[in-house]
Design a protein that fits this description.
CATH topology: Nucleoside Triphosphate Pyrophosphohydrolase
Number of strands: 5
CATH class: Alpha Beta
Strand order of the largest sheet: 2-1-5
Order of helices and strands: EEHEEEH
Strand content: 25-35%
Largest sheet: 3 strands, antiparallel
Length: 116
């Protein structure tokens, strides 16, 4: 997980994330974002639930697609220091707080990638 800085979701913990590039497949975006943000490669990318996320303070509304993937290679490092303050590996039931809204909404669905 990574700790976000900046306006959107500042000071919350999230998973690697981002917007789709024009014409990009969602699984490709997941692979790209994991590398761009933390320098890691992922494999066996599988679609997981989505969340409906309304950020009232920012007047933004997102549908967030989640994926489950296996770690492939790389040593995690903060590659976007203007967006990421910290990172770490955490057990699913011991995530740091506060969490980014899409992660909170995912947990409300009782999703657990280790039971998927």
């Amino acid at each position: 997980m990574l700790k976000r800085i900046g306006a959107h979701g500042a000071n919350t913990w999230s998973l690697p994330d981002g917007h789709l590039e024009y014409g990009e497949e969602p699984a490709q975006a997941a692979r790209r974002e994991a590398f761009e943000e933390l320098g890691i490669q992922i494999k066996n990318i599988r679609l997981a639930p989505y969340t409906n996320d309304i950020f009232e303070k920012e007047d933004k509304h997102y549908i967030t697609l989640f994926f489950v993937a296996d770690f492939d290679s790389g040593a995690p490092v903060i590659k976007e220091p203007d967006r990421i303050e910290d990172f770490g590996w955490f057990a699913w039931d011991q995530m740091p707080r506060p969490l980014f809204l899409p992660i909170e909404n995912l947990l409300k669905q009782n999703f657990n990638p280790f039971r998927a």
